[in-house]
Structure formats: C-alpha cells, structure tokens
Amino acid sequence: QIYESYLEAGSDIIETNTFAGSSITLAEFGLGDISYEINHAAAKLAKKCTLKFSTKEKPRFVAGALGPTNKTISVTGNITFEELEKSYYTQAKALMDGGVDIFLVETIFDTLNAKAALSAIQKLFEDTSRKIPIMLSATIEQNGTMLAGQDIESFYTSVEHLKPLAVGINCAVGPDLIKGHLRTLAGIAKTNTFCYPNAGLPLE
Prior knowledge:
The chain is of the alpha/beta class and 204 residues long. The protein has seven helices and six strands, in the order αβααβαβαβαβαβ. Helix 4 (81-97) crosses helix 5.
C-alpha cells in the first residue's frame, strides 16, 4: 500500500524498504541470518508494484536501498571494511535477484562504509556479469560536513570515478540548510544530482 501510494502520486522511482536490511543492522533484532530473504521479498514486492503502474509512456523503477548500517569504520571503529563488504554483498545480491533496477546507497555519513557497499556491488557485477545503475546519497550535518568529516565536494570527488547515475543529499538538516551544499554539488557533478531532505532539525 505504501509503495503504491507513491506510484499513484506519480513517482518515477520508488525505493525498497530495506534501509536497515544489512545483516549487521538486522543482527540487533536477531534477524541477521535472514537478511537475504528480507531484502529479496522487499525487492520482489516493490517490483510487482512498479510493473502494475508502468506504461510505455511512463515506466516506473525500483531502487534497492542500502543504508549506512548501525556500525561505522571511521566514526565508531566497531567494524572492519571486510565485514561490511560481506554484509552488503548479501544485501545487494538479494535486491538484484528480487528485480531492482537501481542500487541506492543512501544516507552516507562515512565514506569508508559507502566504499564497502560499492566494493560489494562491483564484486556482484563481476560475479553475475550483470550491471545496473548506482545512485549515491550523502548526509550533511549542521556543521557542513558528513559525520566522518568530509564535505560534499570531497565526497563527490571520492566517488566520481564510479560514474554513478546520480549523486545527491538526503536526511539530516532539512531543506533550508541543505540548499548551499546541493548548489555546490550541482556545480561540480558530472552526473545527475538529486535531493530528498527530511523535515529538518527538531524544535528544541
């Protein structure tokens, strides 16, 4: 019903409800060992909805969401690159097997975490001899950088070589404080840019 409400409103792309679908995050709830099944089901369901609404004039697409996990390499240091990469590989494979059209690595606040996800995706492409577009979305905090300290220019420079379909900003500070960073990103990006902010910082 949620997927379809977005499609009814005219969305071209909907994302899977798999933001917290990595085995690392799901382990907190005792569900780490069924990460593949959860992500595969989410992707199949979203794909079923887009097929229902797609027309020749207006095709609809599914973005497989890969969130940042509840552990970070740079900020908390409580996980390794290899552990993250392995978890992301399982999630990405499930999403691809379930029929997603795009990978969306989102709410990136530690570039090393994102690189683990991207490394896993590249390995998946090699293993399956299939490729789908990648979108990346960073989160900028109130101090003007990601939680791990990179600003939007540094972040874009570090992922540009992957030739993503689009690079954007989401979450964190809300529309008003995000404008300047989005303008900076749009000025340097050699690809599409996008933004989906939240409502902003809570009123104290």
